[in-house]
UniProtKB/TrEMBL annotation, chains A, B:
InterPro entries: Beta_hexosaminidase_sua/sub, GH, Glyco_hydro_20_cat, Hex-like_dom2, HEX_eukaryotic_N. It comes from Fragilariopsis cylindrus CCMP1102. This is beta-N-acetylhexosaminidase. Pfam families: Glyco_hydro_20, Glycohydro_20b2. The keyword Signal applies. The keyword Cell wall biogenesis/degradation does not apply. Belongs to the glycosyl hydrolase 20 family. GO terms for molecular function: beta-N-acetylhexosaminidase activity. CDD domains: GH20_HexA_HexB-like (cd06562). The active site is at E244. It catalyses: Hydrolysis of terminal non-reducing N-acetyl-D-hexosamine residues in N-acetyl-beta-D-hexosaminides.
């Protein structure tokens, strides 16, 4: 190969949901020019990754070749070769949303690790980094309006992400065709906010989660933080959280001012308060012209939500919720199949999950993400725990369809390919696990 | 502290089973001399580790101290301090055998990783490295008589341990008070031997495991390899394997020459053949004046074994076997509580296991080992998978006894201490997992 002939059909460089990632790669026997054609630059990235995977390094059999090739780096006779040419590859993803969720609240993940991980995501043709920034344990992001959220709410004042850090991640992700979708989980999973903004917390009896939906301070806070997010994260989508909100008597009903407010507003149940909060939050999001993604409880509890809300189904492969949501015409992403913290789930199990395997309009299933919840992960083991298990989810989301190992050629060869791909990741310097 | 006053009572530097590791550490309020006294140098090592753990790094509160201490490395005011002095520590291990098993056959572990891991074992006051060298998948050790075992049986001719490598490990282990006990698993788990020594394998129909107990080549082979082990490994103990031997019709009864031989020797069952093999193997071991350790099947199947054989109970906390074995006066080590490849077993579960919690002579329970079987571990994740979970086993074996979190102060504080200890390992450069 002497050169690669690259043709990009569109000069639009914007990265967005559903951006075309298709590509055509042609390698002929009698030509030393590889041809790569794609609708967008992002398709070119995917095609180049495929080309890289096709290259195999080996040594010439010098007994049959009178002139061993000297690569110039001392490895005499080492060559790269591509098997099975001519190759005519026409490829495109099955799902437009192929993500990995990282959690920087349970353990802080160093910036360099997040950047390294973007390289691995690109190798896996993933296109969404879902960044679960904050949680009960810590709030490591110093937003421009509220740096104290991090200086007081992070594990350590040095274990924070500045706006510049976040912009570095977004830029690096963009260059790899990866969108960054932030999540500041609200109203639950928020104890770390209490350290700097106790005024937005419920008093049950101490300032604690879920945050207090009845005081104006809360909405000033939410509006400001969402404005900060909007300023920094260019993506059209935003994950608004909303999972595991404590609705029992443990919190809101323990705060007399909240109980008073509920009476005044004729609310009998905490779920109404939850709905009130989500409604106001989703209005803020709508005013920013962002498309909200919610954890499935927001849908399961039947809250009124805008029709463009995307439901993130995380409670396993919950076909009941998927069917209900798609029946009501909501778009759905699936994450429940790919919980990387479930150590008993092998990549085989990940691979078997077919998100479209439900009764209903499968067009509304737009993809999904593997989730690396951070309770037991930090820089010591993040890469080896995520990869190559998440690779199985990535291939499922790229290829779609048939997981049957007797009828699908891809499924038949997945064990060998995962093995080789793991080696490829290790050779590129990323310690994917065995 | 200006100096440490070290007193060693015995000048004997030999490391052996039951070597005294007790120590006394005294730190007074009005003296800048720490006093450390032990029966042997190995007790001194344990005491120094404790002293290191007592040191906390922090910064002087300069407002109350007019003269901040300059450490000379730019960290102005940084100091090490020890809490709660005066301290009078008198410590000794509860079990003499506190091990970690590594498996270099399922994945090759680089020499440097094994050496690093010895440092971590020392931090954990472990004193036995049980080295499961070979298995069905590979044979990475080039013994002096049979280097071809590795050159043909390793994953790659470069992924082998030379005699010098092994001596490096033994020497480094000795300097940390750690004995190295090798295991060449026989007669099962031996397919990798077929690549270089098919003459010792059964033909069922291809040369494969278990090895053939009926031909003289087998005993020449075993004798030579044990002589090689004896030359290199100085420890009095040797692990002879013996687990999971295929006794069904799948192998030995499929080899007509073996069936003929059994008839000739009036053997009806393959277990008799298994016993015949173990008897000859254990005789070789006895002639070398080594004490054999066997996996529990050798005992469970009621084979005749020398009374000094140690039973390694690996099938969970199998009190039935432990009771039977100790009733017959065999010494026992327990490994079934601490399977590091069982990812659903947290360190909490490891910590709860009390090896002496059975009916019988608990003096015969001499310790145990955590086991890191290698199917899913290599240098990418070994340290973070083993530690700090194995630390829980290490403390249990050092402290012994009471695992009750309400009555045992150690059990009460274990969560905090594991957390701190994990940080200590990370700070020393070993990526223990969170």
């Amino acid at each position: 190969i002497s050169s690669i002939n690259i043709i990009v059909e569109s000069s639009d460089m914007k990265l967005y949901h559903n951006v075309p990632e298709d590509y055509k790669l042609v390698i002929l026997e009698d030509s030393d020019i590889v041809s790569l054609k794609a609708s967008t630059v992002f398709g070119i990235l995917r095609g180049l990754e495929t080309l890289g995977q096709l290259l195999e390094f080996g040594w010439m059999d010098t007994s049959s070749s009178p002139m061993p090739i000297n690569t110039g780096d001392g490895a005499s006779g080492g060559i790269f070769c591509i098997r099975d040419i001519p190759l005519f590859i026409s490829d495109a993803p099955s799902y437009p949303y192929r993500g990995l969720m990282i959690d920087t609240a349970r353990h802080y993940l160093p910036l360099n690790l997040i950047l390294d991980n973007l390289d691995v995501m690109e190798m896996n043709k993933m296109n969404v980094l879902h960044w679960h920034i904050s949680d009960s344990q810590s709030f490591p992001y110093a937003t421009s309006s509220f740096p104290e959220l991090a200086t007081k709410g992070a594990y350590h004042p040095k274990r924070i992400y500045t706006v510049k850090d976040v912009q570095t991640v977004i830029r690096a992700a963009y260059l790899r065709g990866i969108r960054v979708i932030p999540e500041i989980d609200l109203p639950g999973h928020t104890n770390a906010i209490a350290k700097s903004h106790p005024e937005v917390m419920s008093h049950c009896p101490n300032p604690s989660e879920p945050i207090n939906p009845t005081v104006p301070e809360t909405y000033n806070f939410v509006e400001t933080i969402y404005k900060d997010l909007n300023d920094v994260f260019p993506d059209d989508y935003i994950h608004v959280g909303g999972d595991e909100v404590e609705l029992s008597e443990k919190c809101w009903l323990n705060d007399t001012s909240i109980v008073e407010w509920m009476k005044l507003h004729n609310m009998n149940k905490t779920v109404e308060l939850y709905e009130y909060f989500e409604t106001r939050l989703l209005k803020i999001v709508a005013n920013m012209h962002k498309i909200p993604i919610v954890w499935q409880e927001v849908f399961n509890l039947n809250l009124t939500i805008p029709p463009n809300t995307i439901i993130d189904v995380w409670k396993g492969f919950d076909t009941y919720t998927i069917q209900n949501a798609t029946n009501k015409n909501f778009q759905v992403i699936l994450s429940g199949c790919w919980y990387l913290d479930h150590l008993d789930c092998s990549w085989q199990k990940f691979y078997e999950c077919d998100p479209r395997n439900f009764t209903g309009n499968t067009d509304l299933m737009i993809g999904g993400h593997a989730s690396m919840w951070g309770e037991h992960v930090d820089s010591s083991n993040f890469i080896s725990r995520v990869w190559p298990r998440a690779s199985a989810a990535a291939e499922r989301l790229w290829l779609g369809g048939n997981t049957n190992t007797t009828t699908s050629p891809a499924a038949k060869s997945i064990a060998d390919r995962i093995h080789q791909f793991r080696c490829r990741m290790v050779l590129q310097g990323f310690a994917a696990g065995p």
